């Protein structure tokens, strides 16, 4: 009982670093407070509203508005409702909350998750990692700006770090011959599915880390040679899988029913592939309807086909994507991947997204802070990431565990440019 | 040789006890002084406070959540914008904004791609689904003849590189007499619905 108390004892330097990071958040909140939700944020807002209405209806035993849920929570099946669930409590108690209040709420949630992550990182990985987290990304202006938006990428990243710390704890205990408990497994499963709900494309990182952890765990427990220990570990892993699948199912079933097609996580992958590597002017077997974007126009077309044939639009989207990609060569693919990597490393665009609608583009102090300064910090760190992948640590077992999990997670995250038009998020 | 007396278990125990006593004598006793008592008390107190605080926090959070859920229906409904999944506008030919010539009906699955007048002729471009080209030609020919229009009004072009499972199969271009706007439905003024796109609408090839 004494150990955990000691572990959370105040650390002046770390506390100060967290305070600085949070102070930066407050300063930047003043900057974005007036900005209305834009782009995908609108979809997350809608999901939050519809989920709040669902809770309202269930609380008073009214039948839920299926149409509203289908249109706003599932939508076109692009986004899993993680951010909708984050916003839901706000719209539950304040149905008319404006976007300033919503940004404040999002800032509070991301701030709380950030502090929680720092505490856990300090406990599992040590003070150095916790301090590093406070510096990067918590002091990168654009990251802080992002934490005040409804995009789920940032929270997904923090929860992914939480997942990493828990995995490290479990693997360390495993090294000492202690198998994880069912409770451990359930917590891990919950964190994993939380990451996927917040940002479905992180599913690869989650699955890769989980698979690596299971292998490492069984490897270290094998030496103890006790069947019961192995059995307990497998039960725990099964519990993690059950929680993951159990929480994924409501979404998969709901989205599949709403779109009348099979949806596991999201429907955006085929369109993303087509837009990134295919011929955009061929996605709708020719150009899509003008006056829209590469995301909405193909879905509109697929919905029209689905209406005409009585089939599902997701199947149509898959076929459209294959058609648009039929001329992809290894050379064009490689070139697009390289372009994506470049974009991965640049923050261009996001600062512009956060500027007030009438503000001049690419100018002014805040644009400099959001873009150029962030880029100055992000650039070198992205090379550090590469270095982290190449450095092989021969030190203690627990450090190796951390290094292996980090590498696997990073590699999985770096698959993004291979499948999707990379963005600054 | 003399047999040494084998120590019985009783005396062995005695020896062990004596050794233990002597060893214990060397270990300085922990003085149960005021400082130890105070520190232990403080630690115990801190632990109890920690546990009580956590319990109270959890209870408060649960109570607040339940209260929020119970009160929420009285606070009104949240209004989603629905902008990310707008209602799909009706098929322009069914809507009848610019109707087909009298007697002409299209009895195959299609979606309108483009509509508009070029040099005094209405050019209506469709994609058809599921059927093979011969079947679409047959049905179109029958429909055109039935409406008193020449068969050559329709050009049927299946997509190259068709695979059997492909849903959308090809393109039909119909050259018809010019039609006038003949519906007061407000949707008929939206080019996205009528598919009569103005020239200055940018192609949808931009990221977002």
Automatic annotation (TrEMBL), chain A:
TM region(s), chain numbering: 73-92, 104-121, 128-148, 204-221, 233-253, 373-392, 404-423
Keywords for this protein: Membrane, Transmembrane, Transmembrane helix
Origin superkingdom: Bacteria
Protein name: Glycosyltransferase RgtA/B/C/D-like domain-containing protein
Organism: Nocardioides antri
Species lineage: Bacteria, Bacillati, Actinomycetota, Actinomycetes, Propionibacteriales
UniProtKB/TrEMBL annotation, chain B:
Keywords: Membrane, Transmembrane, Transmembrane helix
Region annotation Disordered: where it falls in the sequence: 185-208
TM helices/strands, residue ranges: 54-75
Top-rank lineage group of the source organism: Bacteria
Name the UniProt record assigns to this protein: Uncharacterized protein
Organism: Nocardioides antri
Lineage, opening ranks: Bacteria, Bacillati, Actinomycetota, Actinomycetes, Propionibacteriales
